[in-house]
Amino acid sequence: MNSRIKNGVHPECHAGQAMDNTYPSPPTDAQNAPTSAAESPLADLAILQKELAAQKEHCLRLAADFDNFKKRTRRDSDRQAAAEKESFIRDLLPVLDNLERALASKQSASSEQLHQGVEITLQELGRLLHRHGIAAVEDVGCPFDPHRHEAVSVRHDRSQPDHSVLEVIQHGYCRGDKVFRPAKVIVNDLGHSPERF
């Protein structure tokens, strides 16, 4: 063996340098950077696609749940409306029975008795409407309100305030604060001479 190699100096090495018997070191992170940089966006894209698919599925589930909720609410509302109508009709039947009895007894009843029977039936109908939240409105003497009244005629009465309701031709009905049916009324109009009416 060559003495120069034996002493640790390789013939191709410069004089004074010792021979390096170690293996080459593995590539550093800086050397791997181009490969990692190329793989990182692909990995991020795959994660984002998975998240997007999950969000789409979540939105579809929410839309289906909301659609079911709307259908269920509509069904419940229809059932409630049908139950309220049925309740109203049940309450109305005794009133119809009374009217039928009054008509059946018209041969033997006097006009006074018939009048009393109709009056009692009318009161019963008023109570029925009241139970269902509908009340007749007494408007005589009140100021004319186009939201609550329908003027069918005018009169000239100096003893009453201008634009007040003098007479109700057809009663109005309210359900709470909401006008169910406006009243048909005659309104006082002091702006015109009585000759014009």
Can you give a write-up of this model?
The chain has helices spanning 3-6, 29-104, 111-131; strands spanning 134-137, 149-155, 165-170, 172-175, 178-181, 183-188. The model is unreliable at 1-11, 13-19 and 29-34 (pLDDT under 50). It is α+β, with helices and mostly antiparallel strands. Helices cover 51% and strands 16% of the residues. It contains three helices and six strands. The chain folds into two domains: 37-132, GrpE nucleotide exchange factor, coiled-coil domain (Hemagglutinin Ectodomain, Chain B, Alpha-Beta Complex); 133-197, Nucleotide Exchange Factor Grpe, Chain A, domain 2 (Roll), CATH 2.30.22.10.
> What oligomeric state do these chains adopt?
single chain
Count of DSSP-assigned helices: 3
Termini gap = 146 Å
| Tally of individual domains | 2
Structural class: alpha+beta
Helix and strand topology:
Blueprint: H1 3-6, H2 29-104, H3 111-131, E1 134-137, E2 149-155, E3 165-170, E4 172-175, E5 178-181, E6 183-188
Parallel strand pairs: 2-6
Antiparallel strand pairs: 1-4, 3-6, 4-5
